[in-house]
Amino acid sequence: MLLEAKNTKVIGTIAKVVRQQQDLDQTTAGSFAGCGINFVSQFENGKPTVQLEKALNMLSALGIKVYLDIPESSYSQKLHELTGANKNE
Q1: Which residues span the domain enclosing 57?
Q2: How far apart are CA 42 and CA 38, in angstroms?
Q3: What's the CATH number where 70 sits?
Q4: Alpha helices (runs of H) in 1-89, residue ranges in sequence order
Q5: What is the dihedral of CA 78, 79, 82, 84, to 10 degrees?
Q6: pTM above 0.85, yes or no
Q7: What is the C-alpha to C-alpha distance for residues 74 and 40, in angstroms, rounded to an integer?
Q8: d(Cα 75, Cα 83) in Å, to the nearest integer?
């Protein structure tokens, strides 16, 4: 399922719902991601200043993949080269 993440509150809510569906408490989910319970709580509540790296680790631990939808332009080929990404994925 693809969902548009318009702000930190939406991302945190998505993470919380997925965590709960996996029957994980915040402590366990945080340990999978290398984060403490305080971070998990702040992240799920949409705190706008959480660390991006920790947020990405948390999402990954929950099985949530993050993609960036880059508009087609002259720089898309350069981004493809830099990241090694397949722009058709």
Answers
A1: 1-89
A2: 6
A3: 1.10.260.40
A4: 8-21, 26-33, 37-44, 52-61, 76-83
A5: -110
A6: no
A7: 39
A8: 12
- Length of the chain measured in residues: 89
What would the mean pLDDT of 2-25 be, rounded to a whole number?
Answer: 96
The DSSP letter of residue 13 is: H
Percentage of the chain lying above the pLDDT 70 cut: 92
Cα 49 to the chain's mean position, in Å?
A: 14
Q: How many domains does the chain have?
A: 1
Q: Which tokens in the block code for residue 66?
A: 């993050």
CA distance 71 to 45: 30
Question: Exposed, middle or buried: residue 6 (CB in 10 Å: 0-12, 13-18, 19+)?
Answer: exposed
Largest CA-CA distance found in the chain, in angstroms, rounded: 45
